[in-house]
Amino acid sequence: MKLKFDYNNMMADAVGKEGFSEADFAGDAAAIEAAFSDVMEKRGKGWQEWCDLPYRDDASLNDIEQLGGQLKENAGSLVVFGIGGSALGPLCVAYALTHLHHNELDRGARKAPKLYVEDNVDPERMRALLDVIELKDAYFNVVTKSGETSETLSQFLILYDLLKKKLGKAEAKKRIIVTTTVGKGTLYNIAKAEGFKTYGVGPGVGGRFSVLSPVGLVTFAALGIDIRAMLSGAKSMAEACANGDVKKNPALLTGFLQYKAMGKGKNISVMMPYADGLKFMADFYCQLWGESLGKAKNKRGESVYVGQTPVKALGVTDQHSQVQLYTEGPFDKVVTFLAVEAFRDTVVITDDSEVDACDFLKGRTMNELIDAERRATEYALKKAGRLNFTVTLPAVTAETVGELLMYFMYETAFAGALLGIDTFDQPGVEEGKKATFAMLGRAGYEEKMREIERSPKLAKYLI
Ligand code: PA5
Predict the structure, then answer these.
(1) Cα(83) to centroid of ligand 1, in Å?
(2) Per the confidence metrics, is the pTM higher than 0.70?
(3) Mean pLDDT of the chain
(4) Which residues are catalytic?
């Protein structure tokens, strides 16, 4: 394991009465043990099939790499259509491991297609996409675990129709790749009938836990990202997370500390990377943490209304917008910092200026500056008695990104097990999906529409 974890600022020794002590670990030893066993026993089973994703067989990886290689060579643009877990995994990894202005580089420097991850159905966004891509060399990866999601299906329908009109049916079929649950769902049935290249998500891999399946891997391979290194990183984190000693298992450790923090009213979890490349890791985390842990009932069916509201922030940018609140506002947050030891570039702050007041900056690097600012923010939070911990990546590479993703997934699983909830369902999301089907008149949702019509109308409170 290459990632490092510093949880000093979660402890009373550093932050005073808000923090935890060895007595907390000792007092909850049985609960920690039970949560650990629960997650370990279910690895690779039921909705924990994601635990096995790092161990994908060679033939399947070869197939993904082969298609990825073709796209890397031939595609001018690669468009991912998907939403939620079907979009955020591809987005956060691609952003971490490609040039920060990837799409603006010329083809020679980019060495891969432009990437567009389209996770909304705003009509202006669809029009804007069509304004910037060239259909003649564009490929579309349509990703939906259920194969039923209205947003993704509508994006697919629009593009397939356009492709057929512009390029003819035979060519259009070659431009669509589908990643979905094999054997089930509307998109799978269409893909089978049309003969699209199709990848499987795995029946027990939920959307937000699917980044290391073809949901992410196809896109990563097309961008030239080393997917084997990423899976190898994920594997080493999975091994670290199989350690029953809470002090040696990073995901169990921070999952437990977050659980204890929730018990003390810390209802907000801030994810704050200090690296632009990791910016969308905060979005990935927010979905994973929010959708997995925000539950009304525990597994015994009792009302619990648990979860932490995840908030994304970016260091240093949000030091100048949110950190005032984190330092002096309510004692209701835990901040997770993501730090990077070695950036891929070093930029020296010019040192031949005659402005003496800037002496403290002259000749320093931006690398030193961002690092000092992160440490300064950690210090400010600690001084104010605010809970925070830091996950450090030695560098942002395919391997460390694989570790980080696996860590997030195990941390969520352990926290969910400690809370006693079903980490892997999302009844709140499903309710919205069904209501959308009903409102658009989908067959089979008539009763849902009647239910919607029966709910109180709030016309009197309009202005
Ligand atoms: O994590 C989840 O299960 C959800 O956020 C889904 O990813 C999201 O709703 C999209 O679903 P699907 O991949 O079935 O289109």
Answers:
(1) 6
(2) yes
(3) 96
(4) 291, 320, 433
Residue 374 maps to which CATH number? 3.40.50.10490
Q: Whose CA is nearest to atom 8 of ligand 1?
A: 84
Is 181 found in the same domain as 275?
Answer: no
331 plus 403 within the same structural domain: yes
Domain that holds residue 93: 47-228
Q: What is the pLDDT of residues 329-383, one digit of tens each?
A: 999 999 999 999 999 999 999 877 777 778 888 889 999 999 999 999 999 999 9
| DSSP structure string for 324-364 | HHHHHS-S-EEEEEEEESS-S---BPP-----GGGTTTTT-
- Tell me how far apart the alpha carbons of residues 223 and 78 are, in angstroms, rounded to a whole number: 9
**Which residue's CA is minimally distant from atom 3 of ligand 1?**
207
If we measure between CA atoms, which residue out of 338, 323, 356 comes closest to residue 394? 338
Looking at 200, 228, 256, the residue that finishes a domain is 228
**304 and 219 share one domain:** no
The pLDDT confidence band at residue 52, using thresholds 50, 70 and 90, is very high
Asked if 138 and 70 sit in the same domain, the reply is yes
Pairing of the two strands 176-180 and 197-200? parallel
Largest CA distance in the chain: 75
| Residue 246: other Cβ atoms inside 10 A | 22
Q: Are residues 11 and 135 in the same domain?
A: no
- 77 and 216 inside one domain: yes
Task: Supply the angle between the helices 227-240 and 250-263 in degrees, to the nearest 10.
Answer: 60
Ligand 1 is surrounded, with C-beta below 6 A, by 83-86, 144-146, 149, 152, 206-208, 291, 426, 429
Q: 54 pLDDT band (50/70/90 cuts)?
A: very high
- Please choose from 119, 120, 143, 145 the residue to mutate so as to test ligand 1's pocket, defined by most ligand atoms within 8 A of CB: 145
- pLDDT tens digits for range 160-204: 999 999 999 999 999 999 999 999 999 999 999 999 999 999 999
For a substitution probing ligand 1, which of 81, 148, 209, 429 has the most ligand atoms within 8 Å of its CB?
A: 429
**Residue whose CA is at the smallest distance from ligand 1 atom 9:** 84
**190 CA from centroid of ligand 1 (Å):** 19
Residue 426 lies in a domain: no
